[in-house]
Amino acid sequence: MKRIAVLSGLLLVGAISLATAQQQQPTALDIQQVKENLYMITGGGGNTAAFITDKGVVVVDTKLPNNGPGILDKIKSVTSKPVMMVINTHTHGDHVGSNSAFTGTVEFVAQENTKTNMEKMPMFQPAENKKFLPSKTYKDKMSLFSGKDKIDLYYVGRGHTSGDSFVVFSALKVMHSGDMFAFAKGLPFIDTSNGGSGVEYPKTLAKAAEIKGVESIIPGHSPVQPLSELKAYGEFMAAVVAATEEAKKAGKTVDQAVADFKLPEKFKGYDLGRLKPAVTAIYSELK
Ligand SMILES: [Zn+2]
Question: Rounded to whole angstroms, how far apart are CA atoms 64 and 42?
């Protein structure tokens, strides 16, 4: 039953998770230091951040199911402090899948639309799993803790889903972008079934790039990137939407639009591997 629930939850994640759906078994994880008290744990799904504050550890995203013990082991290798909070950047199974490993007095935090999306996930249907849903939510912006431990959460619009948080560790000038900026040089998954929007995607990225006091980014699935890459990614997505709008205006079908797709020369380093689903999503939003 549990496996069925997990797999059907992942169906929503679509193309991105087809590859990761094979990884229901715990994966070998790696930990790397991003700043003095900020670590990134890779493998087993989306990138996890572990932020060591005075009071305890704040975890951002919990990977695919069954990776909880691995995440906790990696955290124990760098601090003896307990995990006190889990922030989920968005609703996908490769970012919330191991929430249930964080028991005790752990507070779960997410943007309010993400909470609504998570409540629909099969993995949170059993009564005993409801306590791993967000209990603290926000709409547009929320600050947690203060001084060097301050974390600012921002929701600046739809894109990957309807509730993607940008999580900023202010004193460190580092942002966890979740999957709004998942693949530094590749098309995103636009999850329209969870409120995502291709048309809004570049606008949301442009607003995220304007958030003050950020120098580097922990992306959803790529190595740490400088802020300039987030800005470039916003321009890339704006070009993708513009080219798609033009194709639709010219009366092309999705297949024709994909076949003829052309971006300005400066985006030639970007991978268009998920072009058809992206164009399909954008077409569905255009009149
Ligand atoms: Zn995602």
Answer: 12
**pTM assigned to the model:** 0.91
Domain made up of 2-227: CATH architecture: 4-Layer Sandwich (3.60)
How far, in Å, from the CA of 123 to the mean position of ligand 1?
Answer: 16
Q: How far is the CA of 52 from the centre of ligand 1 (A)?
A: 24
Phi, then psi, of 186 in degrees rounded to 5: -145, 160
Distance, CA of 238 to chain centre: 19
CA distance 154 to 170: 12
Centroid of ligand 1 to alpha carbon of 139 (angstroms)? 19
DSSP character string of 128-150: GGGGGS-SEEESSEEEES-GGG-
Instruction: Please answer whether residues 277 and 189 qualify as being in contact, where contact means their C-beta atoms are separated by less than 8 angstroms.
Output: yes
- Domain ranges, ordered by start, for the chain: 2-227
Give the CA diameter of the chain. 61
Measured in Å, residue 53 CA sits from the centre of ligand 1 at 26
Residues flanking ion ligand 1, Cβ below 5 Å: 92, 179
Question: What string of pLDDT tens digits covers the 287 residues of the chain?
Answer: 344 444 444 444 444 444 444 446 777 999 999 999 999 999 999 999 999 999 999 999 999 999 999 999 999 999 999 999 999 999 999 999 999 999 999 999 999 999 999 999 999 999 999 999 999 999 999 999 999 999 999 999 999 999 999 999 999 999 999 999 999 999 999 999 999 999 999 999 999 999 999 999 999 999 999 999 999 999 999 999 999 999 999 999 999 999 999 999 999 999 999 999 999 999 999 98
